[in-house]
């Protein structure tokens, strides 16, 4: 009976470890839990426009649960899903503040984008888009996301300033920075010793060490009921349905959603060794469909575009391979509805080392890039570079695709000329 239930999320006791999947889910959840505080803060400027921030918190958690459950049961993959940070910025700063539209208008754009994404996923266009990305670029995306995740870890630690510039050496003497360095060494030791559950153990130990150092704040209370028991059900505005402005927003969101999801999934799956030699990824259609359906569900609940989170790399680094990891992530977010103060007490200095470690694991995909073929290696390098310095997966993928097409054309033309010259000399 238990085996049949677990098979629904792709788990097999003969090939997978129950303990590993659970620990992986807990690890990913803890590295994602910052969204419980960050995303409501990002939507704070809309409160003056009548945006119910308390209901948004409930919607955020529910959308994350639904999206991640879809990933668990439909795609059977170890990914966590939640409203994406890049698209949250576009929702709040561009649509609502810069363009001056209502948050209901923005939610309508999210819903339409999600519906288009679903249609794309069930059509042949989805496979065409995925196969557009050459195998060398897929591994380049994995490495780029590895650096991207590591950069997030360094920024969260407080020792890396905006951009890629390290703060003054004095910042390394602060309590938070010292705790981060302790956590980084601790995580490294667990990796070298190949300790099962080492990443999660590192977070717990570092958090506890942070208490006497004054970095970890013990919450006044652990249990807290949601301030708003219901989310923002179906708060749509159809007044602008036939206007160009709405559809420009829809297409822009769709573009970012597709390439962000594609890049994250490819990167994390490459780290798990789940990319086949021909460049294909099992269950890719269902992974993207889970993302698309998550967006539709999120919009219905009152959230911006739901997407796969790069923090999933931490769970995969811990050994998560099936939807059981995603199921555990979703269950943890259910608990977070009532125990948010506990999870928000975990300092960034404790989770940052794990992010950097996940980046290290993703870096391993570089061995699959043929550095002796410049027409393949250069686009992969540019993909890695741009994902890292721009902190934007979409920019890296576009740059990689463009240069791959250009360099492959030039390489093919040169080789053709060489063959023609050789054949002429033979005659």
Task: Describe the structure concisely.
It contains 17 helices and 2 strands. With 427 residues, the chain is mainly alpha-helical.
Characterise the protein shown here:
The protein has 427 residues and is mainly α. The chain has 17 helices and 2 strands. The protein has helices spanning 2-7, 18-32, 35-42, 53-75, 85-98, 103-121, 125-131, 135-157, 175-192, 198-213, 244-271, 284-301, 312-317, 323-344, 348-363, 374-390, 393-426, and strands at residues 81-83, 306-308. Strands 1-2 form a two-stranded antiparallel sheet. It starts with a helix and ends with a helix.
Task: Give a topology summary.
Blueprint: H1 2-7, H2 18-32, H3 35-42, H4 53-75, E1 81-83, H5 85-98, H6 103-121, H7 125-131, H8 135-157, H9 175-192, H10 198-213, H11 244-271, H12 284-301, E2 306-308, H13 312-317, H14 323-344, H15 348-363, H16 374-390, H17 393-426
Antiparallel strand pairs: 1-2
């Amino acid at each position: 009976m238990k085996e049949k239930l677990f098979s629904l999320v792709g788990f097999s006791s003969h090939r997978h470890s129950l303990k590993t999947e659970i620990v992986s889910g807990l690890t990913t959840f803890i590295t994602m839990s910052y969204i419980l505080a960050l995303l409501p803060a990002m939507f704070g400027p809309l409160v003056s426009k009548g945006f119910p921030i308390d209901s948004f918190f409930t919607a955020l958690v529910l959308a994350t649960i639904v999206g991640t459950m879809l990933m668990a049961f439909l795609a059977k993959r170890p990914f966590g899903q939640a409203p994406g940070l890049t698209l949250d910025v576009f929702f709040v700063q561009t649509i609502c503040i810069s363009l001056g539209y209502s948050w209901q208008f923005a939610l309508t754009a999210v819903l339409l984008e999600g519906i288009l994404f679903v249609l794309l996923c069930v059509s042949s266009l989805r496979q065409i888009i995925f196969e557009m990305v050459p195998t060398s670029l897929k591994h380049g995306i994995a490495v780029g996301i590895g650096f991207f995740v590591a950069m997030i870890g360094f920024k969260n630690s407080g020792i890396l300033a905006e951009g890629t510039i390290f703060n003054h050496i004095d910042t390394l003497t602060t309590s938070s920075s010292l705790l981060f360095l302790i956590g980084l060494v601790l995580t490294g030791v667990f990796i070298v010793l190949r300790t099962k559950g080492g990443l999660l153990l590192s977070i717990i130990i570092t958090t506890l060490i942070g208490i006497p150092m004054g970095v970890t704040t013990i919450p006044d209370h652990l249990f807290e009921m949601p301030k708003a028991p219901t989310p923002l059900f179906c708060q749509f505005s159809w007044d602008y349905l036939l206007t160009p402005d709405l559809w420009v927003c829809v297409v822009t969101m769709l573009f970012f959603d597709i390439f962000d999801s594609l890049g994250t999934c490819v990167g994390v799956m490459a780290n798990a060794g789940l990319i086949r030699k021909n460049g294909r990824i099992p269950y890719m259609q269902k992974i993207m469909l889970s993302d698309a359906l998550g967006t539709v569900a999120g919009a219905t609940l009152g959230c911006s575009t739901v997407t796969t989170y790069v923090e999933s790399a931490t769970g995969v680094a811990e050994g998560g391979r099936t939807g059981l990891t995603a199921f555990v992530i979703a269950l943890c977010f259910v608990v977070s509805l009532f125990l948010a103060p506990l999870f928000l007490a975990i300092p960034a200095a404790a989770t940052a080392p794990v992010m950097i470690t996940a980046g290290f694991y993703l870096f391993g995909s570089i061995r699959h890039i043929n550095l002796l073929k410049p027409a393949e290696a250069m686009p992969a390098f540019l993909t890695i570079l741009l994902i890292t310095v721009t902190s934007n997966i979409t920019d890296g993928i576009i740059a990689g695709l463009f240069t791959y097409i250009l360099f492959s054309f030039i390489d093919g033309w040169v080789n053709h000329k060489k063959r023609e010259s050789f054949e002429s000399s033979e005659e």
